[in-house]
Amino acid sequence: MNKRKLIVGNWKMNGSLAANESLVRELLAGIGQPRCEVAVCPPGIYLAQLQALLAGSPIELGVQNVSTHEVGAFTGDVSAEMLKDFGVRYAIVGHSERRQHQAESDVHVAIKAKRALAAGITPIVCVGETLREREEGMTDFIVKRQLAAVIHLNGHCSSEIVVAYEPVWAIGTGQTATPEQAQQVHAVLRAQLKGVTEHADRVRILYGGSMNAANAAELLAQPDIDGGLIGGASLKAADFLKIVGAAA
Ligand code: 3PY
């Protein structure tokens, strides 16, 4: 199946007008014609800047969050339709940092995915277990429950979603799942998708959780790893470009 890999930079709450501009200029100077799809997700306040900097380039624009609401009295929220105005192509939903610090539940995440899809934005649905859940043998149960919420709320599984497996114990810790550990969970997610859609092989399942320039090639060589959601390494142009280069 001809499915291009997808490499997404999650800048988290990092950047400034000056830092964004120099990072993007370095990326554009080095990216050439990538064999994979590439996107960056800056903090939302910088969308207009990034839209202008990336115009006409092979790098797509993404965001780190989207409101559960469509419009109205929801102070601080930004709707999927508003994001669309800035050319946003991808929206990360359900990152474990939001599940943990903003008390986002599976239902919130599913509604966010639904809002994104309705606006023509591809949700990148993050799933992943904590260290304790892994140690208790709960990994498969947790990731399947998190993905099931999105599948059920949407009534079907659109091949337009992207799934990102991000073991919580590997986020911001420098610890990475081994390629075998990651592939095992990706295979579980693929099997779950196969149970609900004939297009399961078209759904991209990214690995996230301290993917970096040194470990990307091995992770991306696994049969069910279709790309990466990159945290810290996406803030260094040279590292991010190496990861892009490793995604054939
Ligand atoms: C990480 O790699 O730390 C991430 O959280 C990517 O989203």
From TrEMBL:
Substrate binds at N10, W11, K12, G172, S210, G231, G232. One of its GO terms (cellular component) is cytosol. Pfam families: TIM. It comes from the Bacteria. Its EC number is 5.3.1.1. InterPro entries: Aldolase_TIM (IPR013785), TIM_sf (IPR035990), TrioseP_Isoase_bac/euk (IPR022896), Triosephosphate_isomerase (IPR000652), Triosephosphate_isomerase_AS (IPR020861). Keywords: Cytoplasm, Gluconeogenesis, Glycolysis, Isomerase. Its main location: cytoplasm. It is found in: Cytoplasm. GO terms for biological process: gluconeogenesis; glyceraldehyde-3-phosphate biosynthetic process; glycerol catabolic process; glycolytic process. It catalyses: D-glyceraldehyde 3-phosphate = dihydroxyacetone phosphate. The active site is at H95, E166. CDD domains: TIM. Pathway: Carbohydrate biosynthesis; gluconeogenesis; Carbohydrate degradation; glycolysis; D-glyceraldehyde 3-phosphate from glycerone phosphate: step 1/1; Carbohydrate metabolism; erythritol degradation. One of its GO terms (molecular function) is triose-phosphate isomerase activity. Homodimer. Involved in the gluconeogenesis. Catalyzes stereospecifically the conversion of dihydroxyacetone phosphate (DHAP) to D-glyceraldehyde-3-phosphate (G3P). NCBIfam families: tim. Belongs to the triosephosphate isomerase family. This is Triosephosphate isomerase. It comes from Ottowia testudinis. The gene is tpiA.
